[in-house]
Design goal:
The chain is built from four helices and seven strands, in the order βααβββαβαββ. The protein is α+β, with helices and mostly antiparallel strands and 153 residues long. It has a single domain, classed as Aminopeptidase.
Length: 153
């Protein structure tokens, strides 16, 4: 497996994001449509600063992206691994790559938001030493959000 830094217009990255959006739509079927629309607005690809795609035998199987959040704080966005490729540590490798790049770029902290029903994501982040924090803007008023943070060393 290899991880490649790509442009946010990259076709592999955008194909994975479309799959992620469909997955989240089905996963969060119990959330009211008005709140779903709010979440969708927070996931604009145009706001992203960097993107990474994981490949296995030239097939794009996972992605993650970043967004500048505040001075020295980077927000992790759009972490996704194709369901057929899960269980091999790909998400962990993507997060590690993102953290390494963030540290090299001078960031001191990473924040991330996920849905309260996404226990796999919460488990991954806590396993990787992310700590639960109060919901940060724009998620501070959304009851289905869980926010986490990690200080980079």
């Amino acid at each position: 497996m290899k991880i490649k830094k790509v442009n946010i217009t990259d076709q592999d990255f955008n194909r994975l994001i479309r799959i992620l959006d469909n997955t989240l739509s089905n996963f969060n079927s119990d959330i009211q449509s008005t709140e779903k629309n709010e979440y969708h607005a927070f996931n604009s690809v145009s706001d992203l600063t960097d993107a990474f795609v994981a490949y296995s035998f030239e097939e794009a199987i996972g992605c993650v992206a970043t967004k500048h959040y505040a001075p020295e704080v980077l927000e992790m966005k759009r972490l996704f691994v194709d369901p057929v490729a899960r269980g091999g540590g790909i998400a962990t490798k993507l997060v590690n790559k993102l953290e390494s790049q963030a540290y090299s770029d001078g960031y001191k902290r990473i924040v991330v938001e996920t849905g309260k029903n996404n226990s796999d994501a919460i488990r991954l982040y806590t396993k990787m030493n992310y700590q639960l924090i109060d919901n940060y803007p724009p998620y501070d008023g959304l009851s289905n959000s869980v926010c986490l943070s990690k200080n980079l060393l």
